[in-house]
Design brief:
The structure is a single chain. The protein is α/β, with parallel strands linked by helices and about 290 residues long. Helices cover about 50% and strands about 15% of the residues. It has two domains: about 160 residues, Rossmann fold (3-Layer(aba) Sandwich), CATH 3.40.50.720; about 120 residues, N-(1-d-carboxylethyl)-l-norvaline Dehydrogenase, domain 2 (Orthogonal Bundle). The strands form two sheets. It has a six-stranded parallel beta sheet with strand order 3-2-1-4-5-6, with helices on both faces.
């Protein structure tokens, strides 16, 4: 049986690791945070090199490629795995970081970039969307892992395309979030009840992920606790911007959405949920 070492037992990683265990797979957990390790129902180790020594497949679910590289390459930790083992890099990383990781692991570990979309709720329910880049043959061998985590795994192409797809998806999601929040603020000014306007959107062509899954659930009730940080959304959209520029494209709306998110992040003193951008929109001066 495939021995999986799952690195990163945070808001997303913990339910993903638990779903892998529930599917019958053998999972060993690691997180730098002791309380996160203690929350996991399976076996954990307090040192990453100890955990890696048991790995046939390593899954990383970390904030960015920077942390992934630190885990793998500090003291050559990756060499604690068995030669020929597999890395499923599921963090929200830059495609160039994934390509660098693959190059540095060549001859020891095989790599698939496999970031996810769906948030904490779908991580818990095992209904994530997974975007995968790398070898198609390796994708086919590891599809049972993706099946335990999500409702659909999409093979995107060469190394880095999974992370590129994730970043572009989050750009589209962020644009929809900003548009919905701005429209809601205007509707309130006009005198249309918030809940009524949300219902209008969800029965009209303005319907999107934010109007269906976020306005009532996290925004109108002021909960702002979807589990995905505003700073991470800004980071992902920044990756999409860099990818477009690296391919010779300067996209005006993408640039504006990226600036909007970065400005909103700076407006808050603390690290807030991405749905709290609604408060930022409410406080904007829209006068021309």
């Amino acid at each position: 049986m495939d021995k999986i070492v799952f690195i990163g037992l945070g808001k997303m990683g913990l339910p993903m690791a638990e779903n892998l265990r529930a599917s019958g797979l053998e999972v060993i957990g690691y997180d730098i945070n002791k309380s996160a390790r203690n929350t996991f129902s399976g076996v954990t180790f307090d040192e990453v090199k100890k955990a890696l020594s048991h790995a046939e497949t390593v899954i990383t679910m970390l904030p960015s490629g920077k942390e992934v590289k630190e885990v793998l390459f500090t003291d050559d930790n990756f060499q604690k795995t068995k030669p020929g083992s597999v890395l499923l890099e599921m963090s929200s990383s830059m495609p160039k970081d994934t390509k660098e990781i693959k190059h540095r692991l060549e001859g020891w570990m095989q790599v698939l970039d496999a970031p996810v979309s769906g948030g904490v709720s779908r991580a818990k329910s095992g209904e994530l969307s997974i975007m995968v880049g790398g070898s198609k043959e390796l994708f086919d061998k590891k599809v049972h892992i993706f099946d335990a985590l999500g409702q659909k795994a999409f093979y995107c192409g060469k190394t880095g395309t999974g992370h590129a797809a994730k970043a572009l998806n989050n750009y589209v999601s962020a644009a929809g979030l900003i548009a919905a929040c701005e429209a809601l603020v205007v509707a309130k000014k006009i005198g249309i009840e918030e809940d009524k306007f949300t219902e209008i959107l969800n029965n009209s062509t303005g319907k999107n992920n934010t109007t269906e899954k976020k306005l009532r659930q996290f925004i109108l009730n002021r909960a702002f606790n979807s589990g995905f940080a505003l700073a991470l959304m800004a980071k992902d959209v920044g990756i999409a911007k860099l990818e477009s520029e690296d391919h010779g494209m300067s996209l005006k709306l993408l640039d504006e959405v990226s600036k909007y998110l970065n400005y909103s992040v700076k407006s808050f003193e603390n690290d807030v949920d991405h749905t709290q951008i609604y408060e930022f929109v409410e406080n904007l001066d829209f006068r021309s």
